Amino acid sequence: MIVTDKKRPDIASPVRTRAIMETYGLSFKKSLGQNFLTDVNVLKKIVNAAQVDENDDVIEIGPGIGALTEQIAKKAHSVLALELDDRLIPVLSETLAPYDNIQVLRQDVLKADLKDLLARHFDGQHQVKVVANLPYYITSPIILHLLETGIHFEAIVVMMQREVAERLGARPGTKAYGSLTVRVQYQMNVQVAFIVPKTVFVPQPKVDSAIVVLDPKEVQVLPQNEQLFFKVVRGCFQHRRKNIWNNLLAFLGKQTVDKEKLQRVLAELNISPKERAENLAINDFIHLTNKIIDFNIIEK
Description:
Layout: H1 14-23, E1 36-37, H2 40-49, E2 56-61, H3 67-73, E3 78-83, H4 88-95, E4 102-106, H5 114-121, E5 127-133, H6 139-148, E6 155-161, H7 162-168, H8 179-187, E7 188-196, E8 201-202, E9 209-216, H9 226-236, H10 244-252, H11 259-268, H12 282-294
Parallel strand pairs: 2-3, 2-5, 3-4, 5-6
Antiparallel strand pairs: 1-8, 6-9, 7-9
Helix pairs in contact: 2-3, 6-8, 8-9, 9-12
Protein name: Ribosomal RNA small subunit methyltransferase A
Family: Belongs to the class I-like SAM-binding methyltransferase superfamily. rRNA adenine N(6)-methyltransferase family. RsmA subfamily.
GO cellular component, one term: cytosol
């Protein structure tokens, strides 16, 4: 990368952020969940948490005015930044001009064909990571979208609302443990790297954030039908106050399901019909899905 003006303050500095906003007449779009980080040290900690170096090609989602993008570019081989707000495209072309390893695309990540983007913009010789400050209102859809692409991400390191971070890292038997937890932990190891106070953002959000590190894990037990597994998990958590028997009946069809077979499935797995989904481990849901198929309760 090339830095043309080493004396210029980092984009994330409060003075520079205000200057950029005033120069371009920018306001924050609540509809896009825009909160800009103005603490350079926090941004550097994010990049360090992702262990970004010259071996990495990095996808960033929602670069804003380029504060995090700049810090990533200083360490990475290349950066592909996807920005939905078309007002920010000309801003980014100016703020990130000193760096020759950044490409900015006007793109909605939820509609993007990421495999195609990687093929066209990365050389395929470096490992791929995602590093981003995600909008609170679409954090979960973005993470699920990334996991569903089938792309091998060496790491996904993202900032999100602290409450969502706690849900991703939750353990069975806790209130935070739910279908999102199971879906993500089925595929990824989850670590909350550190908490980011709301005071370092402009405008200041109402809650603190957290940096979450996701890295791929080897699945030891596989479901016979992965998509059915995801559906079973969602079904079991559909009504958290209901036990697993009632949720399964609702999911499978109370009027049509063979209840005797379903009772045998739970008995063989030593799962009480009165148990709640929040107390089952990921492998329990996998075995449950496989037994539902084995007993022909639902077609494979």
